[in-house]
Amino acid sequence: MPASGCRPRGAGTPGRPDAGRHAHPPHGRGGFIGSVAARTLAAAGHDVLALDSLRPDVHGDRTTPELPGDVPLVRADVRDADAVRSALDGRDAVVHLAAKVGLGVGIDDVDDYVSSNDLGTAVLLRAAARSAGGRAPHVVYASSMVVYGEGAYACAEHGPAHPPPREPADLDAGVFDPRCPACGRVLVPGLVTEDAALDPRNVYAATKAHGERLLAAWTRATGATATALRFHNVYGPGMPRDTPYAGVASIFRSEAEHGRAPRVFEDGGQRRDLVHVDDVAQAVLAAVEQPQARGGVEAFNVGSGVVTTIGDVARRIAALLGAPAPVVTGEWRAGDVRHVTASSEKAARVLGWRAEVPVDEGLAELVGVSAR
Ligand code: UD1
After folding, report:
1. What's the pLDDT tens digit per position in 76-128?
2. Which of 177, 233, 304 most suits a substitution to test ligand 1, by most atoms within 8 Å of the C-beta?
3. Distance from the CA of 274 to the CA of which of 90, 164, 241, 284 falls in 20 to 30 A?
């Protein structure tokens, strides 16, 4: 669970508005997005404070956070109102990355997801509304592409389509692509934009969408600003590994490192957009420094813009590590979406942010075959 806060040292970053004091969400020793974001913010001249619970189901017994020496770490849970209020004291912004991520291990996870993510966000927003100095900080919230559900599709005959969740019978029969609700034809995936309706399809996605709704209510109540960054599949060094909540690139890396074939679910044709954690940290920096003044929550897709398939990710990682070729298992996970790829043009237009790390370079770095 990451959280951190920062304020600029001296003048603001050249070419960007002076962001004042900022606070960001808690992050852990694996310190995946949180530690890179903290480093990036500190390097840009912000005075950063990090808050992280370092919970063992994500971080194991590693308790030393990977933070720059000048970023203090408060070890506390985001649901600890006193700790969060004190961490936010006088801060101009908070980057709220504290969350339990992934599809989870089953419905037994539901209360922990809701407590960690929904209650965590609520506690943070309440504390932020009352932060000392009387002005609520700008909130940058880690949302997710999964808030869109299946994303954008079109039917060759019926045009834009919004398919319902996939049927277990179809998935068992190896029909993985969603079908047109009108004619049953397999749909063609496209790039989803921020104005699409939110339609979360699993517990984690529901908590992320609810977080955006809470932020909207909070901005109306406080008059403060908030930015929701809808992250795509974030990867890079420091990715959590060997936990039930690890992202697929990390899982494939672990398998390939042990000389095993990565196991690809469905038929491997599911489409994702892998975005490097360094690029994500730059998006966080841009969102911290450019609060949108319109009021309410401004949402931005944060992806590389390059569509890849999970089968291709597995093949690349196996090849980089000289592991056996991936096995396509045909298994499927309840709650998984088939394709989710977004347009990140709004972030480019409004925040001036674009991903820069090519996926080939990023994956080579991830598996330790090269340093970028
Ligand atoms: C991921 C993130 C989520 C984030 C979202 C944004 C994780 C665990 N999840 O969800 O936090 O909000 O991106 O888009 O980081 N797969 C395999 N083999 C495996 C494991 C998974 O083929 O061993 C497949 C899955 O079936 C799925 C795809 O890989 O089709 C991606 O899975 P996963 O890494 O869990 O990511 P998302 O569900 O896309």
Report:
1. 999 999 999 999 998 999 999 999 888 766 788 899 999 999 999 999 999 99
2. 233
3. 164
